[in-house]
Every structure is written in C-alpha cells, then in structure tokens.
Amino acid sequence: MITKKEVQHIAGLARIGMSEQETEKMATEMSAVLEWIDQLKEVNVDGVEPTAHITGMENRLRQDAQSDFDNQTGIVELFPERKDNYDKVKSVL
Amino acid sequence: MFVDSHYIRSFESNIVMIKELHEKLVNKEISAVALAEKYFAIIAEKDKNLNAYLTLTKELALAQARKVDEKIAAGEEIGILEGIPGAVKDNLCVAGVRATAGSKILDNYIAPYDAGVVTSLKEAGAVILGKVNMDEFAMGSSTEKSAYGATKNPVDLERVPGGSSGGSAAAVASGEAVWALGTDTGGSIRQPASFCGVVGLKPTYGRVSRYGAMAMASSLDQIGPITMNVEDAAIILGAISGESKMDGTSAKSPAKDYTQYLTGKVRGLRIGIVREYIDGLGEGPKKSILAVIETYKKLGAEIKEIELPYAKYALPVYYIIMPCEVSSNLARFDGIKYGMRAVDHVNSVLDFVPEDRNLIETYLDSRRFGLGAEVKRRIMLGTYALSSGYYDAYYLRAQKVRTLIKQDFEKAFAEVDLILTPTTPTPAFKIGEKTADPLEMYLADIFTITANIVGVPAISVPGPLVEVDGVPLPQGFQLMAKWFDEENLLRTAHAYEIADKA
C-alpha cells in the first residue's frame, strides 16, 4: 500500500503537479498495480543475469565528429517563449 | 449496429492490394494524383464517424503524387510503393507536420525533421495522406486515451479499434488508407489489427530504425506496418527496415525484398502451440484459433505442443520495465524547449493562476495540465520503481525474469519454427467498457506483450470471425518467429491467408 505522502514525494521527483484529490486517486491506483506486480516475488531469480538489450547487441561506435542539424529555424520556432533566437525561461537560480 | 461495407468486401475478392494499385498506375488507368484525391474523398466521407485522422497532409501528398505522375508520363519505371497512399501514426515525425502523439502537451508541436521510416517511405515514393490517432504517447489498448477523442472501430462504431495504433488500424480497415505505420511496445500494432480485421506486423527489435519515433519504452519499442494483407506488410517492411546510423540500437540487417518468401509453402514447418492459452479462451475465440490450427495441419505444417513456463510473468514484467523507461523518456516534456508551457499569461486551462510561476512551478503545471491520467500514472509508477531503494526490487528483478522468459523462447525455438497464439483473448470490446479499471485494460495485451519482452518478430492475421451478441467480429491470430526470422513469419502468415481465401 502506497501512502498519500509517498505519492506527493514521487510526484515531486517526477515534476507532476497534483491536487489533493488527484493524489488520493493516484495512491489507490498505484497500490493496485504494485500489489499485482508483486507476483514477481514468487520467481526465484538467484544467479540469473538481467537482460537490458534483448538481441545482445554490443556497443556501436562512430566517429566523434560534429555535424549541423539542417533545420535550426524549425527548432527555434518551437520554443514556447522566445526572445530573438533564444528560449526564454524562468530564472534558474 | 453499423457494419461498414468496405470491411465485408475485404473478405471477398475486392481487396485493394498494393500490387494491384501499382499496376493501375503503370497502365495509366488512374493517376497518382487522382488516387490520392480519391483517398481524401473517402476520408472526408468516413472520418466524421471514425475519427482516425488527426492531421491531413494534402499538400505534401499531392506534391508527392505529382512527382510520380511526372515519372510515369516520362516513361520512367516506378517502384512498387510509388504513388501508394497511406497514413502515419502521430508519434512518428513528418517534417513540417504537426505531431501530437495524442497528447495536449504537444498540441502545437511541428516536427522539425522526418523519422527514419518516413524518409525511407518518401524515398520509396509512398504518398503520405496524414497522421492518425492513438492513445496518448502510445499508452493504452483502445485509442480512448487520446486527448483528441476516441477512434471508432469501422466494423462496429460502438466498439474500440484497439490501441494504441487504433487510428492506423481503423484507417486501413475502413479503406481510408492502403497502408499505415504503427508502433508496438506491448501489442500496439497487433491488438488493433486483430480488432479491426487487418494485418499488423511487429518486426524483430532493432529491425526498423526508431529515429524520429517518440520513445515510450526504449528496450521494447518497434515500428511496423498495418495493412489489408500479408503481402502488403512484407512490401512496407522491405521499405522501412535496415540499419540506421541515427538509431544506435538498429540491427545490422540489410533492407531486402520480403515478398520473395511468400511461397505459400509451409509443409514441414513446425508450429508450436501453448495448451493453456487455448484452454483459457472463451468459446468463440477458441473455435477461431482451433480452425486456424486445422488449416495449418492441412497445409502440411507440424503442430507441436510447447511450454513457456515463465511467459505468465511477461505482463507484470512489462508493467515494471515499461513505466520505468516511460518515466525517463517522458521527462523531456516539461514545457521548456517545445510543447505546452504553463505560463502566467496563458492560463485558460488552469484552475488557479499563480501570480508569477517560478521554474519549478512551470514544470509542475506544464506536466499537470499537459499530460493525461494514464500517462501520469505510468510516469509515477516508473519514478517510484526507480527511486532510491527500490531499483533492485523492481527494475532489476524484472530484467532478471525477462532473462528467464527469453530462455523459455530459446528452448521453444529449438523445437519449433514458429509459435501460434490468439492475438487477443476476445474480439473488440465496447467503448467505455474497460476505462474504469486500468488493470483490466492491461490484460487485453496478455498474448502480445511477450514478443516485446523477448524481442522476437510477431504478426497478427485475421482468423475466422467470432460472433458476439449475434454479430460477427474480427479475431486475429498471432504468429511469433525466431529473432530476425521475418521470412518464415511472413511465409507462414501468408500461407494461411491464401488458403483461407481459396
């Protein structure tokens, strides 16, 4: 069972704003899924290696060379707030 | 009850195949421009009811079509896909075209570049009609979780088309597109294909470049085609597969012509079935899959019972790995670089207006109001499972069980060439039927998720119809093959299709 306080903590980490009511609903729904997922505890995984990449691919290397993206305007135009060619955001510090 | 006539026709002789259209273009029976315009007319008529399309790309389509017509007029040879109209799922980028992925947070997002698959299809001359609906960021099994309204199943407008590639499947099944691209993380191509009575192919993990696809769960995602028949799926796969330097996980597999493997011959191929999967089905779906097994026996394939003891854990494994990867991949949607930003003077969607939001409040509110409930739930689950102290208990354990499931498949594929299962436990459910309980919706993917967990290629093919309340509904069956063995997968799927139509 996951508490409302835990949900608030996780929501902060995930950067999702949540109302009191949403927090409560989220706690119930997350608890149900986590309880169901718990069936994995019955599997004995001693000595089993984890799988991160399924076809066992190795690292692929390339030249560490820079190349320009060909549509910089397209990216600049997506900025939610713009000043000249800069993305305007709230002060970070 | 509404049964679309195109759908009924599709089981008769009137299927519009890519090859057939290609010949009409070559023989100048129809021009590429006229063909594109014909499809826009069909969309204008049908999509009022279906809501499959989110954006139409008429200018792009007609420009592409004109090029094909010029080539034909000049007496040049044209490729098999040149001038063939289709649709692209809205989580794949088409340069200069809106891409929402079914989310409000990307309501105003214009893709600055083409996805790898889109570049490939454009180079092959395929005509892009528009972008199609989906569950928000591909999270859902019914397309009800799109921020732009649900898509309806063309077979029965009261039912869901499946999801998350529901727009893709509905567009193809209703004749609004010849082909469509979808993405599949746990069944999102195959399940809607099964619900709408069309073919859906999830290639081997890495077979197709994911560059320009909005990532959901990176270790599971794959792009693939939805089409009316297996041959068309093979043609599209041939165009979109191959290694790409823009996707570090794309496999070293050369692009090739997959249609050459469609020989109709499956004699001697060994097809594995899992007894519990069939025994657990309701009467209708059970009859459907048993009839498929009979057909394969008649065609000379050898049916063998196999066991996949760990496969029952695929669903819980998925619901750990997927949300963890989702929580990381969706961190980029924060209202800073693109998409919706909750700003002080744009507050129409907010229920309160802070005097002056600081940076953290901008993040919190952009995500709060830009993302839907299912997406938030998965981000939250993933953030929880990856948070300090829980990594070993959840993500690491799930990856270990993933190894055990993979070993199940390695053992099975030592004995058989293919594995046959139903695609879905039931035909399409009704709109609103499963929205209340997230867990119940998740169970719609029980047969499809394993192929993503182990990375093998899988296809859904329409099997015998299943009657629900006296109405015949599509029911697909699924074939899975060894890693990178799309050849036997397509061969076997195609053999059933031609036997069924004979």
Fold blueprint:
The complex is a heterodimer of chains A (93) and B (502).
Chain A: H1 4-13, H2 20-37, H3 72-76, E1 82-83, E2 86-87
Antiparallel strand pairs in A: 1-2
Helix pairs in contact in A: 1-2
Chain B: H1 5-10, H2 18-26, H3 32-50, E1 53-56, H4 58-73, E2 85-89, H5 116-123, E3 127-132, H6 166-173, E4 179-184, H7 190-196, E5 199-202, E6 222-227, H8 230-240, E7 270-273, H9 275-279, H10 283-298, E8 302-305, H11 314-329, H12 359-370, H13 373-386, H14 392-415, E9 418-422, H15 438-442, H16 449-454, E10 458-462, E11 466-468, E12 471-473, E13 476-481, H17 486-501
Parallel strand pairs in B: 2-3, 2-4, 7-8, 7-9
Antiparallel strand pairs in B: 1-3, 4-6, 5-6, 5-10, 9-13, 10-13, 11-12
Straight-line N-to-C gap of chain B: 29 Å
Instruction: Enumerate the spans of chain A where pLDDT stays under 50 for 5 or more consecutive residues.
Output: none
Estimated structural class of chain A: mainly alpha
Determine the fraction of residues in helical runs of chain A and give it as a percent range.
25-40%
Helix content of chain B: 25-40%
Q: What is the CATH superfamily of the domain at 5-269 and 418-501 in chain B?
A: Amidase signature (AS) domain
